[in-house]
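Exercise: predict the fold of this chain.
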Amino acid sequence: MHRVEAGHAVHFVEGKPRLKNLATSAMIEVPEYKIQPGDVPGFGSGWIADAFWTNNSGNPVRSFRTSWSVPPAPTTNSGQTIFLFNGIDPADPSQAILQPVLQWGPSHAGGGPFWTVASWYVLGNGQAFFTTPVPVNPGDVLVGAMTLTGQSNGLFSYQSEFQGIAGTELPVQNVAELVWCNETLEAYSITACSDYPATDVTVKASGSLVAKVRSRPCASTSTSSCPSARGWQATALPVAIATNKLLRQSAKSATFVWR
């Protein structure tokens, strides 16, 4: 688990990640760390719902931007962790994910019963890199963006950030092409419906509606009536992603409605 300070990048050399000082080009070795569920936003074990699109156009995704408003705080605090993000993965999504993340609750990066934003790069082998979480307030409009910054010899470089929020920039260099674009709600330790924000959260990518995450009041507050990993339903909506000056459309996105 590695905090990436400003002015540094996650730089891969022969498939191994290092931290690179962008001013001096000095490399810092990083030890491996095995993540635990809920430590980081990652790969599906806590994914409640997601909308996705795979870029098979033959042109790399140049940018993937999503905008949404920070929702109100949940009305109950059960020590839950909520991650809401747009992410982009290689062809095998279990290998890595780059993501600008809105977080409620604790994670290995920090946090608590308040909203924060940070950029993350998580590897399937358990290593994770993140920027220092920055507090945000309900009603703030966020733009989570991932941008292609370079490519050479079959490898690609990207930057994740929340536009206009200093300290959230996370460069990742010399990795496999990222092609699997997703909008995801991930959560842990949910014990009641009120542990989610009691409002719709609409996320828009590249100017087109991608997904609406809706939290409705439940008739019961029991875990069995309001489980953390069931009860979300998906219906198709269009999604737009910028790929090398093109705008690709797909119906593989969703409206998520709490039942």
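Check your answer against the key: The CA atoms of residues 146 and 160 lie 4 Å apart.
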